[in-house]
């Protein structure tokens, strides 16, 4: 059950938040990526179906994701952006090509090793939060550690919870939290294992723009403050404008790959891509 | 809408299969019951038709009444054979003497597994309808023909010798021939040994007596005319029937005996299975209707009426019911075979013939199968109609409650009260046994439903307790399993309730058997002053009282007493057992629990005209010491007996105690069916007594402890049979758990996918489902155990009076709880695999 009270707040502040974020992370901002690729993909193709009915979703994608940066993957629907993310995260197998996460080639990993990899190296944020309804916020946050039967590093847990601003909500269950709060729990859950890379699939898709802005702020801060590598799939120009780098896909290929784009620039690019169709 | 129903069934093949199975097994048990009892009827009809095939008229002594207690055989003088032969129209007349006995091959009594060993007369053609398959006709003294099944079992061939133990003792006989009986060739496990009339009479210790006369007719004389003529020519008080009538009567009598005992017992167990199945249908429909909430809302939004939604669900239930009934009837044939095998394994080999699927069986099976499915699906179907069209646009999968939902708890309490009332009425009312049993059964049924309705309140706390050790073993899987079990308490409660019912019955039976065993042991231990007990435990052969008394000459024996059992009809008191003893020795071996001021001294006064009554017998309440009761024996003799006093004993010697002289007066055999021997405790006395009974090798001399162990074993055998029959309902409840879990896993696909995505292993997911299953099963198991104990307590203390003592079979209870855990683990195999195999990508992609 979503708390409507939160959604009803005035929406004018939403765009302000985005503006502020954009200002904060303009190309002029002080930023030094250390340049190591955490995720590398070479020659990724993915074809659904066989023979005449074969539909190519990805038609040869090479990409390097550098450590400590927020990369947004954009593109019109059907462009293959979700498929690319699934393959980079080891959720889907490419028809051809290779993916390395933190130096490990993952496309031929056995089920067990993949699970291990997900536990140790990968974090996920889903569009629909996907919290466990029966667990408290705190329990949801440490769930990946519980699954791995590991203890949380107390200091890290505290800083993550502080970063997402949920100190007073820890004993609440998802049903007692607003959508934005639920997604912040999901972000904390993804951060808690200090993954090599965090995948966010339309993280603001189910949120209004104000709470969406808060979540984006949070993602941005985890990159800046914790050096977290994030790959975010989105179709929202506002969301993509906080990224260090924006990759546009079209018809299964990388159409454009640029650092630090403004919202307007992104809007234009999307429009151009769609017109060019 | 009908097409939608079929689509819905087809789109959930696993759920459809599991629900069909749940109801199918109950239907199969009902079908199996009827098929088996019909087969047994046919089997006996076959046997009796064969045995009377060549008989035009059958003459037999008339029993004044028959009782369940093994009627004392009546006999006639064999002078009557000549009289019958003299009747015009009679071609041949043959006297038949029959008695129960035992065969001793290579020095050991042949075990028949409860079936009788029949010593009978070879009456020759045309009466003897058996077919000789080896050897020759009987030629001379102590030559016998034996049935093929017996020859096969023992390896006896024509020319071999073996020993017959009859009521009169041992005789060596020689096998002349081996025969088969009628079409089926066998009589179940019954051993048949046929000899010449005078030989069999001697074995039975009744020379000159016959059990009946078989008569054939001259050409042109109808059996009916001949029967009338024979009846007119012979003394009155005899039963004279045509062979056809005799066969029909014998068949009907057997069928009646089966119909009044076996059929209701088997049907009761089948009923439990059907009842358990009903819970599963209810649950399956509740869950799928909830999951299809949006679909129903969409249909309503598109203009479907409530009635159409209802129809679609009802048609679905109807289809399942018809499908389950059809397959269940087929499976019932297998169940009939299974139950028969169960009987055989437990030593009851009953003759059966043919595959007997009567139209009546099919009709009942279909009515029950379809009826129960429809009834169980009705509430979920009604809830489906209450889904508002707007729900199509909403998230979540909760169903609107029915109009009566807010009365749920009140309804449950009302059902509880009604059930308890019905149970109490059944226990305390004075009505007929069947009526009382019906009320008790109905009461138990309602209590089960009420507990299932109320169980949702304990699901959460119970999951916490049961889940605790799991959380210790595997913290996160245990935690999630516990949460999931408590997520939809009604669903978990209904699923657990299915197991509860089967287990409650199992526990009840165990508690009851424990009470029987304990009380019997206790009664015997308290009352007996004897150290040894001798009895023929399979053929119930008796020993002459003179032989019993002669045991007192055996070194080490202080006293020996024999008890003869006879059924007597008491005026105003029904049929009771008369336990006849020699009053001069009885008190030395047995101390009664005296009531109303009685004492051992009463036996000094016990003569042919007096009786000591068991205080709990129906007549005891109506008389006091000094009154007279009128009794009739099966031979028709009447006697008036003065009541000397009262004792209490519903375990060993219920009915009444009389002297052997009374039995003589009533024209009933006085040979001892049981011997009690008191020793001086010196070693080797048991063996010495056994040696002294060398002429009666089937009599087993046992110490008190051995005797009680043997009785307990018999109770355990019956217990095993009941467990076997109840196993079906436990199996059905497993399907119920599987079904609920599969549907829940489906419902939580996205959540499971997320868990996988953030690093849960397949093993962890499997564990999570397994634990949830075990929690559900253990809730059912604990509830069932508690309910079973409660039912056992009520029945034992209320119905058993002070004769049955309530005690708990701890070891078995522990075994049952372990069984519940096993049920949980087994039920989880498939759903756990499904959960573990969830494809992350498909699970997390938005629907």
Task: Describe the structure concisely for a colleague.
The complex is a heterodimer of chains A (277) and B (847). Chain A is an alpha/beta fold and 277 residues long.
Explain what you see.
The complex is a heterodimer of chains A (277) and B (847). With 277 residues, chain A is of the alpha/beta class. Chain A has a domain at 67-90 and 109-275: P-loop containing nucleotide triphosphate hydrolases (Rossmann fold), CATH 3.40.50.300. In chain A, 38% of the residues lie in helices and 23% in strands. In chain A, a hairpin with a 6-residue loop joins strand 1 and strand 2 (55-66). Chain A is globular. The model of chain A is unreliable at 1-12 and 26-33 (pLDDT under 50). Chain B is globular, with a radius of gyration of 33 Å. In chain B, 56% of the residues lie in helices and 16% in strands. Chain B contains 25 helices and 25 strands. In chain B, strands 4, 5, 6, 7, 8, 9, 10, 11 and 12 form a 9-stranded mixed beta sheet that branches. Chain B has a 6-stranded mixed beta barrel with strand order 17-18-23-20-22-21. The mean pLDDT of chain B is 84. The two termini of chain B are 24 Å apart. At the A-B interface, helix 4 and helix 6 of A face helix 14, helix 22 and helix 25 of B.
């Amino acid at each position: 059950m979503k708390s409507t009270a939160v959604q009803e707040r005035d929406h004018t502040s939403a765009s302000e938040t985005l503006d502020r974020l954009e200002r904060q992370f303009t190309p002029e901002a002080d930023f030094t990526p250390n340049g190591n690729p955490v995720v590398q993909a070479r020659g990724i193709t993915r074809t659904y179906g066989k023979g005449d009915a074969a539909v190519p979703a990805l038609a040869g994608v090479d990409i390097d994701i550098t450590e400590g940066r927020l990369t947004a993957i954009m593109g019109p629907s059907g462009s293959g952006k979700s498929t690319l993310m699934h393959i980079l995260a080891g959720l889907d197998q490419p028809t051809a090509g290779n993916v390395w996460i933190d130096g490990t080639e993952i496309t031929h990993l056995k089920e067990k090793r993949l699970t291990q990899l997900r536990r140790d190296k990968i974090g996920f944020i889903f569009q629909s939060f996907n919290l466990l309804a029966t667990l408290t916020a705190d329990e949801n946050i440490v769930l990946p550690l519980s699954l791995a039967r590991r203890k949380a590093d107390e200091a890290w847990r505290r800083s993550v919870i502080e970063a997402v601003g949920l100190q007073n909500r820890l004993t609440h269950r998802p049903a007692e939290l607003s959508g934005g709060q639920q997604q912040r729990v999901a972000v904390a859950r993804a951060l808690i294992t200090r993954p090599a890379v965090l995948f966010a699939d339309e993280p603001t898709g189910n949120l209004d723009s104000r709470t969406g802005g808060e979540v984006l702020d949070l993602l941005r801060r985890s990159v800046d403050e914790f050096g977290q590598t994030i790959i975010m799939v989105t179709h929202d120009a506002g969301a993509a404008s906080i990224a260090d780098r924006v990759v546009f896909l079209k018809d299964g290929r990388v159409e454009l790959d640029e650092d630090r784009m403004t919202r307007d620039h992104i809007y234009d690019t999307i429009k151009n891509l769609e017109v060019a169709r | 809408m009908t097409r939608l129903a079929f689509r819905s069934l087809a789109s959930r093949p696993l759920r459809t299969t599991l629900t069909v199975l749940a109801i199918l097994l109950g239907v199969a048990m009902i079908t199996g019951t009827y098929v088996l009892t019909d087969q047994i009827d046919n089997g006996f009809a076959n046997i009796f038709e064969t045995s009377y095939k060549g008989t035009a008229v059958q003459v037999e002594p008339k029993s004044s009444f028959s009782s369940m207690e093994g009627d004392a055989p009546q006999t006639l003088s064999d002078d009557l054979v000549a009289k019958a032969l003299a009747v015009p129209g009679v071609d041949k007349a043959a006297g038949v003497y029959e008695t129960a006995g035992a065969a001793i091959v290579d020095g050991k009594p042949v075990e028949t597994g409860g079936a009788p060993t029949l010593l009978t007369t070879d009456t020759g053609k045309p009466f003897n309808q058996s077919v000789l398959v080896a050897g020759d006709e009987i030629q001379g003294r102590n030559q016998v023909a034996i049935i093929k099944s017996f020859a096969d079992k023992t390896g006896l061939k024509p020319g071999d010798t073996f020993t017959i133990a009859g009521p009169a003792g041992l005789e060596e006989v020689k096998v002349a021939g081996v025969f088969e009986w009628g079409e089926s060739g066998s009589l179940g496990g019954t051993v048949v040994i046929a000899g010449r009339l005078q030989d069999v009479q001697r074995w039975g210790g009744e020379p000159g007596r016959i059990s009946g006369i078989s008569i054939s007719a001259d050409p042109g004389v109808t059996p009916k005319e001949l029967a009338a003529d024979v009846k007119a020519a012979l003394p009155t008080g005899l039963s004279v029937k045509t062979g056809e009538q005799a066969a029909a009567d014998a068949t009907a009598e057997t069928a009646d005996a089966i119909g009044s005992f076996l059929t209701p017992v088997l049907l009761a167990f089948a009923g439990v299975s059907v009842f358990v199945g009903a819970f599963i249908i209810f649950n399956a429909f509740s869950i799928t209707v909830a999951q299809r909430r949006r679909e129903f809302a969409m249909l309503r939004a598109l203009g479907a009426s409530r009635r159409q939604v209802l129809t679609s669900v009802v048609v679905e239930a109807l289809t399942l019911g018809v499908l389950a009934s059809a397959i269940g009837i087929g499976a019932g044939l297998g169940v009939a075979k299974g139950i028969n095998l169960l009987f055989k394994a437990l030593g009851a080999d009953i003759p059966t013939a043919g595959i007997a699927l009567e139209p009546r069986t099919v009709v009942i099976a279909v009515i029950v199968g379809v009826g129960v499915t429809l009834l169980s699906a009705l509430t979920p179907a009604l809830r489906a109609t209450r889904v508002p069209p707007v729900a199509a646009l909403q998230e979540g999968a909760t169903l609107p409650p029915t109009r009566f939902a807010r009365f749920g708890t009140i309804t449950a309490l009302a059902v509880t009260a009604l059930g308890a009332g019905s149970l109490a009425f059944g226990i305390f009312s004075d009505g007929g046994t069947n009526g009382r049993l019906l009320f008790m059964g109905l009461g138990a049924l309602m209590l089960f439903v009420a507990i299932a309705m109320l169980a949702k309140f304990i699901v959460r706390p119970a999951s916490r307790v049961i889940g605790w050790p799991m959380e210790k073993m595997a913290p996160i899987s245990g935690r999630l399993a516990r949460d999931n079990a408590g997520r939809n308490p009604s669903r978990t409660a209904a699923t657990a309730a299915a197991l509860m019912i089967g287990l409650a019955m199992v526990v009840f039976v165990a508690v009851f058997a424990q009470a029987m065993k304990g009380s019997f042991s206790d009664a015997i231990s308290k009352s007996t002053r004897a150290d040894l007990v001798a009895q023929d435990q399979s053929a119930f052969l008796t020993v002459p009282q003179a032989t019993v008394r002669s045991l007192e000459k055996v070194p080490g024996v202080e006293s020996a007493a024999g008890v003869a059992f006879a059924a007597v009809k008491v005026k105003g008191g029904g049929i009771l057992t008369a336990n006849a003893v020699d009053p001069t020795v009885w008190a030395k071996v047995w101390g009664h629990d005296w009531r109303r001021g009685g004492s051992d001294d009463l036996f000094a006064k016990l003569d042919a005209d007096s009786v000591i009554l068991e205080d709990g017998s129906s007549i005891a309440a109506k008389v006091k010491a000094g009154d007279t009761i009128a009794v009739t024996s099966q031979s028709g003799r009447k006697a008036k007996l003065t009541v000397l006093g009262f004792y209490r004993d519903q375990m060993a010697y219920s009915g009444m105690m009389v002297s052997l002289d009374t039995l003589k007066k009533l024209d009933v055999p006085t040979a001892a069916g049981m011997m009690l021997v008191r020793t001086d405790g010196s070693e080797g006395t048991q063996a010495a007594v056994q040696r002294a009974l060398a002429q009666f090798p089937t009599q087993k001399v046992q110490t008190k402890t051995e005797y009680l162990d043997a009785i307990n074993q018999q109770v355990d055998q019956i217990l095993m049979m009941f467990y076997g029959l109840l196993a079906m309902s436990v199996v059905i409840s497993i399907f119920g758990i599987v079904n609920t879990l599969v549907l829940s896993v489906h419902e939580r696909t996205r959540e499971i996918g997320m868990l996988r995505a953030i690093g849960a292993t397949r093993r962890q997911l499997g564990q999570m489902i397994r634990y949830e299953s075990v929690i559900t099963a253990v809730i059912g198991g604990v509830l069932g155990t508690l309910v079973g104990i409660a039912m056992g307590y009520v029945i034992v203390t209320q119905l058993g009076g002070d004769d049955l003592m309530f005690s708990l079979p701890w070891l078995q209870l522990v075994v049952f709880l372990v069984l519940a855990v096993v049920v949980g683990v087994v039920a989880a195999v498939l759903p756990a695999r499904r959960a573990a195999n969830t494809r992350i990508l498909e699970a997390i992609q938005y629907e």
